[in-house]
Write a structure and sequence with these properties.
The protein is mainly alpha-helical. It has 4 helices and no strands. 10% of the residues are buried.
Length: 121
Amino acid sequence: MAGVLGMSEFYDEELEEIKRRKLLELQRRLQMEEELKRRRQEEEAKREALLRSILTPEARERLANVKLVRPELARIVEDNIIALVQSGQLTPPVDEDTVKKLLSLIYERTRRETRITIKRK
């Protein structure tokens, strides 16, 4: 009987050790996710501040409106504006007309034409 009791205690200790390791792993993963989230938020805040300093209020408003309808298009235009300003090809402040031109250029490159064909029997 003493042997069975000893096995049970060993099993319980092993089970507790597994639970403890799983809990530590979960805590580490949560900390890493929180750190990633915090970094993304910081990067996004820096990006927004940079765009605020580059764009005129009208240009920011135009991009905000586009972002409501086509967020991916607005993101591409913002990336292009930042790259162009950093490379010296565009000088701040970037006005609404420049944003419109970039929007139309990028829209033409990224849009997909929808074709519907009807086959009759």
